[in-house]
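Interim report, section 4.2 (structural modelling).
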Amino acid sequence: MSTLHTVNKSPFEKTSLDACLSHASAGANVLLMEDGVYAATKGTAVEQRVKQALDSVKLYVLGPDLMARGLSEDRVIDGISVVDYAGFVDLAAENDKVQAWL
Amino acid sequence: MSTLHTVNKSPFEKTSLDACLSHASAGANVLLMEDGVYAATKGTAVEQRVKQALDSVKLYVLGPDLMARGLSEDRVIDGISVVDYAGFVDLAAENDKVQAWL
Amino acid sequence: MSETIKQFLYLNRKAPYGTIYAWESLEVVLIGAAFDQDVSLAFMDDGVYQLTKGQDTTGLGMKNFSPTYAALGDYEVKKIFVEKESLDERGLTLDDLQHLVWEDEDDDWAEKDSIKLVSREEMTAIMDGADVVFSF
Amino acid sequence: MSETIKQFLYLNRKAPYGTIYAWESLEVVLIGAAFDQDVSLAFMDDGVYQLTKGQDTTGLGMKNFSPTYAALGDYEVKKIFVEKESLDERGLTLDDLQHLVWEDEDDDWAEKDSIKLVSREEMTAIMDGADVVFSF
Amino acid sequence: MKFAIQINEGPYQHQASDSAYFFTKAALEKGHEVFRVFFYHDGVNNASRLTTPPQDDRNIVARWAELAEQHDLDMVVCVAAAQRRGMVDEGEMQRNGKDATNIHPRFRISGLGQLVEAAIQSDRLVVFGD
Amino acid sequence: MKFAIQINEGPYQHQASDSAYFFTKAALEKGHEVFRVFFYHDGVNNASRLTTPPQDDRNIVARWAELAEQHDLDMVVCVAAAQRRGMVDEGEMQRNGKDATNIHPRFRISGLGQLVEAAIQSDRLVVFGD
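Predicted structure of the assembly:
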């Protein structure tokens, strides 16, 4: 069964992104939202960890959350797709369940 | 000026302990409280980091918070002092200020 | 109450007492037990701290809710998965946790262990198999 | 309002919008400016994200409070310390942050930079020098 | 498709309620059904009719109430969580000997079973929290 | 010695208010003065007189009110934070056109200046939060 994992916290503040990535099975989808969007940006201390995750899971980032935080889409790591709330709904519908890493 | 730093989150959930320890100057006092008390126990993945901190700062842990979590005092790393709320008040009074790492 | 049987997974990743999530999550499990779904509880990350023995909240004036875990067997909640890597990281072993059991009606009410120690890989498989994941 | 002059340090370690702490902290700074204390603001860890340029909250329907930082100079808040290590870890440089200034009355109202980039060691010294630390 | 939404945090302090709102709105606009929005933990505080946010900010409670009105949403506040946090309707006021109510009329207080039922009846449970 | 206490989180969800209570109580028992307890952010929710916690758990609001009564504590709720979260006294009710109040009479609503003043007048500011 396919799962949409959601991560809403900064990887520099909380360990939830790492917990999610180390439990997401190959082919899973992971949506970075709220303060979780910082993990999607280039040049950070967690960039390698995120790029490595891209080998086995598909990563998405919520556009409105990026914009609010002053992060333009060109700062987003290649391979991560930007979606809006409608895209979030589609992901939730296309996967068999949604698992929030609170 | 001497400072009492307080850390109230688990080092496995949040990065505040590390932020505190990397900014506490020599001779500072650090109180582990609430979910922060987990950092005071032996055998964890952060034990070495905590022991290393003991070389330059004095560490305290709040006893009632340990007890609530089922952690007896013999699980506490040597060199960390257990205090109660009265001891917390004394620490706050003896130091020149209290800095909370929220 | 419903003919649908779903695989429910309650995901417990937070420590007790510092926040209320652990306790209010357990309240959902107790209520949910009446709905006859296929229930599993996963304890990982700081969630493993919820199950420690000897919790004594006298000094905090809070309700000690840890005895409630021992009642889960009576609610037919008997699949409790604890992640080994999470215990290791925290310097804990199964001996530090409560011994939770359920009584097997089909085996002359023999007491059986509810807690199963699983690896991170097994935990991933358990999560993958769930229909609904409750997070708190 | 008081003859005591204290060294106030506002410690900003949290990102904006995901939680309200950054904004409600800034409200204290604005109110506190009327009390004529010696005020410093420290931005470190995720707090550095508060100062990024180009914040646009249209898609969230939230108030964009980032322009308020530019008004701090008018409130005589002119000591804003940003930790270099925190920027580095997040792939940011000073160019990614707003350019905050204050006007120096004693120097023909010349605009001067409010933000000072400091090392972790300097940040430690700044914290040590404070009389009161506000955390949110 | 049928969605159930769970919200664990109160208004303003965390973004959880905002994210849940935009998700719910987008789901409805796409023609999906939202079986129930369940407010748990501090999430119960989203139901207060007594909030007065600044005029230049969003009104979280009013926004939920309007969306519920337009789409006939079932917005349920957990009774146990509500009691701990002082969210009160007429029935709770009388039962607990209180002298006021503070719940917005578009929300209703009920038991945790409503969350479990929503998870069973819906195709997806989506949780928003801290 | 004179203490000022700041509480950033509401009751029950986080331990902040509990820790602050025991600290304040211990400080008073040691003969220290507590200049003010300031409730900020979700901390304002500690002032609700409408809570009904389970009988086998502590009553956080009542406990604060009793301590305040015994020691004539000044317990201040930030007005801006209170408006966002629906914590209302008589004055706020009238000013904002609300139809009820929910604040416990032992607390008072006032401005953020009260926090700054407390920090100036006290020897120590101790902050409890998330």
